[in-house]
Amino acid sequence: MSNRVEELESTVRELRAAVDGLTEELVETRERLRQLEEQRAAEPEPEVVESAHAEHVDAEAPADADGDAQAEADEESGDEAEADDDADDTDEIIVA
User: Fold this and answer.
1) What is the secondary structure of 25-86 as a DSSP string?
2) How far, CA to CA in Å, does 82 sit from each of 38, 68, 70, 79?
């Protein structure tokens, strides 16, 4: 029975050591967090300046404009692309 008591006492020592280590880590983490919060509070907030000349643009609008510009470029270079197709066949790089 004394063997069981020794095992339990050993387990208790290990658990206490784990709790002490975790407590120390928690204290250090809280201190670091406090320092970061103080540092952030000391930094000036970036100012947002609105201009009367600024224009609001939707996120989808540039994609449409790019698509239209791409379609026009494709139409203009359509004939050139056909001529380049023959050249592309011989310009391929083969890596062995």
Assistant:
1) HHHHHHHHHHHHHHHHHHSPPPP----TT-----SHHHHHHHHHHHHHHHHHTHHHHHHHHH
2) 64, 21, 17, 5
Give the helix/strand (H/E) hosting 95. Answer: none
CA distance 8 to 52: 75
How far CA 44 is from CA of 38, 39, 40, 41, 96, in Å, comes to: 12, 10, 8, 8, 58
CA 24 – CA 21 distance, rounded (Å): 5
What is the residue type of 44? P
pLDDT in tens, 50-96: 777 767 667 665 555 555 666 666 665 555 555 555 555 566 767 65
What would the two tokens of residue 14 be?
Answer: 């290990």
The pTM (predicted TM-score) of the whole model is: 0.41
61: Cα within 13 Å, side-chain hemisphere:
4
